[in-house]
Design a protein that fits this description.
Length: about 400
C-alpha cells in the first residue's frame, strides 16, 4: 500500500483509472445500479412528457388564430374576448366602420356560432359554424386535402376538417358500414340541407367542438336568427401602416380590441394560464418528477455508498485523497444520471411518436428546449444526491478497512 500511495495523487492519478474504479463499483451491485437508473429515467419521463403535453395544450389554444388568420394583420373583437372560442357578438355595422378607417387596406367578417346538425344516419351533432366573406373567402382553411376553397361558393356548400370527419362526423351508411363524412355527402344543418364540398386540415385545437366552414351569406340560413353574430373582423393594414397605431385607431373608433395574430395567441395563452388550473396542475406534476427522482435516486445512491463504505475506506487506505474520492463519487452519479436521462428521453420520444401516430389529436409538443430543461433538472437531482452521499464518504476513516 505504501508503494501505491507514492503513485497516487490528485495530479498524477489516471482519470481513466478513476473511471474504471467508479464503473467497477457500480456494476458490482447491478440491482442498485438499475434501480438508480430507473429512478432518474422515471423522473426524466415525468418532467419531459408533462412539459410536452402542457406546451401542446398551450399551442393548441391558439389553433383557430393560426388557421383563420391568412394574411390578415389584425383581429378586431369585443374587449371582453379572451380566446378564439370566447367570441362575443358585435354589431354588423362594425365591419363597414372598420373598412372606413384610415390605414385599412381591407377588412373581412368572420362569423361564428353553433348550429344543430344531423348526419346522414340521423346522428345529432352541434358544430361551430364559421362564416367567411363570400367574395374573398378570407378566414377560410389554408390547407385543403380534397376539393378547393372556392368550392365553398357552390350551392349549400360546407367544408369540414379531415380528423373531425373521421371522429365527430363519422356515421353508418345505408350499407351498414361506419365511415367518415366525405365530399358529396349531405347533412342537415340548422333548418337547411348542406353539401360537403371539401375536406381541409386544421391544427389540433384545445376546443372539442367540431368546425364547419361556409360563406357569410349561407351562414344566415344555417344559423338561427337570434344566434347570428359577427364574432371577429380580419384586417389587412395598408402598406407602410404601423399596426399598433392602426389598432389604436380602431379601438378608439368603436371601443373594441384590435390585436395582431401573435398578440391574440399570447392573450389566449395568458387566459389559459391565469384563469384555469392547467399551469398549476402541470407545474405540480413536473415538480413531483424532480422530487421523485431526488428521493428514489438519492436514497438508492446513499444506500449504495453505505454498502460500499469499506471499499471507499480501502481506497483511502491506499493513498487516495478526498479529491480523488469526490471524482469517483461524481463519476458514478454522472454515469447514472446520463444513462437514466437518455432512457427517460427515449421513452418520452416513443410516447410522442405513439400519440402522433394514433391520429387522436392529443396535444403533444416536444420542443427543443424540453430536453435541455429536463437535463438541468436531472443535473440538479444528481448534484444533490451526490453531495448528500459524499458527506458520508468524506467522513470515512481508512482504518475501517482493517476492522473485523
Amino acid at each position: 500500500m505504501v508503494t501505491m500511495r507514492r503513485h497516487i495523487d490528485d495530479t498524477h492519478c489516471s482519470e481513466i483509472g478513476l473511471l474504471f474504479i467508479a464503473w467497477k463499483m457500480l456494476s458490482g451491485d447491478m440491482l442498485k445500479y438499475v434501480s438508480m437508473i430507473a429512478g432518474v429515467a422515471f423522473a426524466t419521463l415525468l418532467m419531459s412528457q408533462q412539459t410536452a403535453i402542457y406546451l401542446g395544450l398551450a399551442y393548441s389554444a391558439g389553433a383557430a388564430v393560426r388557421d383563420f388568420s391568412g394574411d390578415a394583420d389584425l383581429w378586431v373583437m369585443d374587449k371582453a374576448v379572451a380566446f378564439p372560442d370566447d367570441f362575443k357578438p358585435m354589431r354588423s355595422a362594425v365591419i363597414d366602420v372598420v373598412r372606413g378607417i384610415d390605414g385599412v387596406q381591407w377588412a373581412s367578417p368572420l362569423l361564428r356560432s353553433s348550429a344543430a346538425m344531423r348526419l346522414p344516419d340521423g346522428t345529432p351533432q352541434r358544430p361551430t359554424v364559421v362564416g367567411i366573406d363570400d367574395a374573398t373567402l378570407r378566414g377560410g382553411p389554408s390547407v385543403m386535402l380534397n376539393g378547393q376553397l372556392a368550392d365553398l361558393r357552390k350551392d349549400e356548400g360546407i367544408i369540414i376538417d379531415q380528423r373531425q370527419a373521421e371522429t365527430f362526423f363519422a356515421f353508418v351508411d345505408s350499407s351498414g358500414v361506419r365511415r367518415s363524412l366525405g365530399v358529396g355527402d349531405r347533412v342537415a344543418l340548422g333548418q337547411s340541407s348542406a353539401l360537403v364540398v371539401g375536406i381541409c386540415r386544421l391544427s389540433e385545437a384545445l376546443s372539442s367542438s367540431p368546425v364547419v366552414f361556409t360563406t357569410s351569406s349561407r351562414f344566415r340560413s344555417f344559423v338561427p336568427v337570434e344566434d347570428r353574430q359577427l364574432a371577429f373582423v380580419l384586417v389587412k393594414a395598408a402598406p407602410g401602416q404601423e399596426l399598433e397605431d392602426l389598432g389604436a385607431r380602431i379601438a378608439r373608433r368603436e371601443d373594441l380590441l384590435a390585436r395582431t395574430p401573435e398578440q391574440f395567441i399570447t392573450r389566449t395563452e395568458q387566459y389559459l394560464n391565469e384563469s384555469t388550473g392547467i399551469l398549476i396542475s402541470f407545474s405540480i406534476v413536473i415538480g413531483l418528477g424532480l422530487v421523485i427522482g431526488l428521493i428514489v435516486s438519492g436514497q438508492t445512491f446513499f444506500n449504495f455508498v453505505s454498502d460500499n463504505s469499506r471499499y471507499f475506506a480501502g481506497l483511502k487506505a491506499t493513498g487516495m485523497t478526498d479529491g480523488m474520492i469526490v471524482r469517483i463519487v461524481f463519476t458514478q452519479i454522472g454515469i447514472v444520471s446520463l444513462v437514466g436521462y437518455w432512457v427517460g428521453m427515449g421513452l418520452t420520444a416513443v410516447f410522442g411518436l405513439a400519440i402522433v401516430g394514433s391520429g387522436s389529436g392529443f396535444p403533444y409538443r416536444l420542443e427543443a428546449g424540453i430536453p435541455i430543461g429536463t437535463a438541468l433538472g436531472v443535473l440538479v437531482v444528481g448534484l444533490i444526491a451526490g453531495t448528500v452521499s459524499l458527506w458520508r464518504v468524506i467522513r470515512l476513516e481508512p482504518a475501517m478497512v482493517f476492522r473485523a
